[in-house]
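S1.2 Input.
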Amino acid sequence: MKPSPSDPPVTILDAMGDPNLFGPWFRDSATWSAWRAFLAALFGLPMDDGMAEHYHRCTGRSEPPAAPQSEACLVVGRRGGKSFILALIAVYLATCRDWRPNLSPGERGTVMVIATDRRQARVIFRYIVALIEGVPMLAALIERATNETIDLAGCISIEVHTASFRTIRGYTVVAALLDELAFWPTDDSANPDAEIMAALRPAMATVPGAMLLCASSPYARRGELWRTYREHHGRVDAPVLVWNAPTRTMNPSVPQSVIDAAYERDPASAAAEYGAEFRRDIEAFLAREAIESCQRSGQLELPPVAGTSYLAFVDPSGGSNDSMTLAIGHRAPDGLAVIDVVRERRPPFSPESVVEEFAALLKSYRVSKVTGDRYAGEWPRERFTVHGVSYDPAAKVKSDLYLGLLAAMNSGRVEIPADARLAAQFLALERRTARGGRDSIDHAPGGHDDLANAAAGVVSLLTGRARMPWLLGRMRNGIWEDGPGVRAYVEGFNGLIGYTPDPELEPAVERQEPEQEPVFYPVEGWSH
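S1.3 Output.
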């Protein structure tokens, strides 16, 4: 085993109070008392009575740890100071510890800060730069600096990454600091927090004393933050230190009036944002098992088939923030709603070019009319019309589309492509219950559901009414005549449904009379 890193000449608490190090940033010591208690627990430092009280209240444990922690999790309210403390820990570990005894020749150790997105990553990186450049003796250690990396003397680098497990492989990680992991995006993965943590642990395995620290405001009762809190908070023998505290416990400078106003507007949201309580009014909408059972194996896209009638749903976008998506599907003879193809164009893009591309794809499936989001305004209707495709606003709002999708998926009446981004967006959908008791379904904060919305829209079109396969029969002079395929759908069914032929969707049905009455007939497995 490689030797442990040499003992630092100064503790992190000493560094916070040293005017030649980080002292200028912590002049008002009273507002940082809870954070000093957390850092004492994290690094296994002695505590005074005030620190011990904070420790007991925020961890649910009685005895402080006697040694540094290899893993810790901060569940703290907004504006509590999490990002700045992560930056402080990153700079301290990179500059005040010597990791060289644990590195091979030519190897660099990395203190990795992983943020929700590039905006948040820039916030943390600015803190890191200020802490290093504001201390002359630390600034002298800089060998190279970019917008996301600082290489320091001693074979150590501080790097800021966005949340993707693909970007962290191949590193030797001496410390990983994960910021706001409860809100990490789920576009490319349904559970990026678990995948990143699983990728980090092997990268830290060869470094004695390496540290994994997660920090986030709480959100829904799922994911790695919730799992860690549920399994380790309040347990004296737990291998992970979990620190749970509301905003004003960690940062008393936040006005109470701001927090009171937030509770007045939305108590459930404020309890999570400022009270650091996991939300009880949000739950996962679709189960992974239901999604996987509906995925087809083999072809990602099904080509158009002669004699098959297709419907389509588009989720338009202006090309700056959200993707523009399209789903095309058909109803199989057995009633299964089949999504043949989903397409996504991610921003930035030219909306006109994407409309032209989607219109060409629609025409290849013989679709002359597409349904889409009614909130997109008039431009989708105008642009699709220019390219020979009519555009109808959706009759249902997004939550209702998803509720219909839930019923269809849970009953196995849908076939979807095994598209990873589509599955990830389905899994990330949330059901929220408002104070009035009404449910709404949407993506998580910072997430996207453009593919999911288009898929749910076309499923709604395909399952919204019963459609009769072609050549089951026809109306002639007000009398129904069986066609060549009718017996296969009639045998074994005892119920009756109503059906009015649609010449656009089922052109083989001949309409001889201008005002045709609905025809009632038995069809196996069909319902209103």
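S1.4 Remarks. The chain has three domains: 12-280, 288-463, 473-521.
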